[in-house]
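Box 3.1 A note on notation
Throughout this textbook, protein chains are presented in two layers. The first layer is the amino acid sequence; the second is a token string describing backbone geometry. Keep the layers aligned when reading.
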Amino acid sequence: MAATALSFAVVTNIFAQGLPLIGTSSPSAALEAEPSPTSRSDLTQPTEETVGPFEKLLKEQELGPVWPTNPIKYAIRGAVDAGVPPNTIVLLLLLPVVATAIASVRHLLGVRGFGIFLPAALSIVFVATGPIVGIVLFLVIVATSTAARMILRKLKIKLQYLPKMALILWFVVVGVLSVLFATPIVQHPDLASVSIFPVLVMVLLAEDFSRVQVGKSAKTAINLTTETLILSLASYILLTLTPMQEFALLNPEILLLMVVVVDYLVGKYVGLRFIELWRFRRLISD
């Protein structure tokens, strides 16, 4: 035991001093021999790749007086100087834009889906995990929660709502863990680097999926899931557009005012949706 402790202390001292062990190459040589794959830039994380361009934009922008047109710009600069990551501010500014876009598509075109919050939350998850991993997790959660409900119904296990949702959440967690456990086989960089927060958001959305699926047919549930996925991917594209991110950061007052105006105008529309016009086009023409 004493010899083992002494050996461990010697090795620890060697690593602490940055000296290579006998028979091994230096850390720099190992890095050169095995180059690490370039990871995808995650807008939800305050890394140099995401924070650097935004900070440069803020430094290059010239501001006028605070009132009446620039109060939010000055507030953003104060928050960034205090340590708030600018990418977080950009995502928060773009979130109402995404909600407005989803509401407009649903209200004017007639596209359905699981509400407004679910596609918006999924779009943020896609930004954090990447669209491929996000879609896989989304489909696994939907399929697992649906299968769990079918199994409980087939086995005629009657439970109260809250314990039943807790049991469905157990199935969902097992399904997500199965996907993560497949990382050594799949070897996808986005799957290997996924963090707990987007996974947690996806898992918590299982309750909303199950609530919407109650009393609906399998075809309706599949259609709602597909349309939700389409809305989420479109919102993901909107969030990752560089011109949109730069406009939100440099012109927050204009952006927020435009969102209010669009929401008001869309909310005043009481006519038929585009899908309804297409469906009843013969009656309308007659």
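The chain has 16 helices and no strands. The chain has a mean pLDDT of 82.
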